[in-house]
Amino acid sequence: MLVPQQHTVSKFPLCPGDALMAEAKLIGPELIADPYPTYSRLRRLNPVFRDPEIGAWIVTSYDGVLAGLRDSRFSSDRFAQTLQLLKFPGFAHLAPARVHSFIDRDPPDHTRLRGLVNKAFTPNRIAALEARIQTLVDQLIEAFPRDHFDMIAALAEPLPLIVIAELLGVPATDREKIKHWSDAIANAFSGSFAIPDVALLSRAAVALTELFDYLAIQIEQRRRDPRDDLLTALVRAEENQSRLSEDEIYSTILILLIAGNETTTNLIGNGLYALLRHPEVQQDLWTNPSLLPQAIEEMLRYDPPVQMITRTARGDIELMGTLIPDGEKVFFILGAANRDAAHFPEPDAFLLTRDQCKHISFGVGTHYCLGATLARLQGTVVFRSLIQRCSQVQLADEPPVYRENFNLRGLKSLKVTVQA
């Protein structure tokens, strides 16, 4: 039965017999530490509901998320236009770079932008990185402290940063600046349900300004003196007599920095934490490294590096028997969809024996994650190397610490002990 559009907010479908997630719960440390029991409750009671506290729809079932992401009426453009943070002082003159991002555009604009970016971000360019990634991982493992240490700081953070910086052609001396800017911006564009924090947005506005000033210099250098790097390839990319504008180059690099840096760190950190909490699974993988491809996919399903994808309804849309009115924001929760028992038997178990683990951690369709291949490659090299070079990896006594970012949910610290 459809929910009539004329119903007021209070009459949108709520979770029967159970309180909805209030805003504090949606962004609080309890949800960040472990959102999956909450997801399960919401999916069981009402997989498509409108939370009046945040003024948006929450979709938690696999079928609902998949159907919504495949439905072009759920628009990326419309969501970008309604982001509150673009109205924040300091962001107004920078908004075009976000609006010109290919992940925030619908076809045909998305098709043109994605096609141009694909010209630069080619499979061959990514495949050619494996030897370099292996060298970097070997160097980082060689530098592991003898006693217990933080695996995020030692491996999961520096590796993706170095890889994406080298890919773009960023000098080694500028990597820490890039990391600082990326972190500040990612926190602002995290897709959080929260009312924007003024201090956080102020830092992000400064970071955006500094990043774009830096990129303007780098882009001009590439135009005068082309190099064999991704930034040059983006500047020179052409298809059907079309090129990327400067704003489009800025926004593409911004997405590559966040997707190539933050999310890969989360894949490595979240994946290792899942393994270490399941020592019998870890032992199976160390004994049988041929299970590594399945292990990477299960890591992505079990605790994905990105928790949700945001859209806005363009017209009244029926989704799983519920009518979502025109202009409404929708949060498609990837982490919840990947734990749906209707598609994944024993969804809360971490298993390497799943047949056809069809998770949707990288999205679906035209907006499928551009960096999926690079993320998988880095994850594969990292875990293959840990298997080969570390006879034992265990959790230390200190509990892990999560970053305060709901969408890019990942570990800030993961203390471990390692034996060669």
Describe what this molecule looks like in 3D:
It is a single chain. With 420 residues, this protein is an alpha+beta fold. It has one domain: Cytochrome P450 (Cytochrome p450, Orthogonal Bundle). It is 50% helix and 11% strand. It is built from 19 helices and 14 strands. The strands form five sheets. A five-stranded mixed β-sheet has the order 1-2-10-7-3. Strand 8 and strand 9 form a beta hairpin. The longest helix is centred in the middle third of the chain and has 31 residues. It is globular, with a radius of gyration of 21 Å. The N terminus is likely disordered.
| Whole-number total of structural domains | 1
Helix content: 40-55%
For this entry, what is the oligomeric state of its chains? single chain
How would you sum up the global shape? Answer: globular
Major sheet, described briefly?
5 strands, mixed
Task: Summarize the SSE layout with pairings.
Blueprint: H1 23-27, H2 29-33, H3 36-45, E1 48-51, E2 56-59, H4 62-70, E3 74-75, H5 76-82, H6 95-99, H7 109-120, H8 123-127, H9 130-142, E4 149-150, H10 151-156, H11 158-168, H12 175-188, H13 198-224, H14 230-236, E5 238-239, E6 242-243, H15 246-276, H16 279-287, H17 292-302, E7 308-313, E8 317-319, E9 322-324, E10 329-333, H18 334-337, H19 372-389, E11 392-395, E12 401-402, E13 411-413, E14 415-419
Parallel strand pairs: 2-10
Antiparallel strand pairs: 1-2, 3-7, 4-14, 5-6, 7-10, 8-9, 11-14, 12-13
Helix pairs in contact: 7-14, 9-11, 9-19, 11-15, 12-13, 12-15, 13-14, 15-17, 15-19
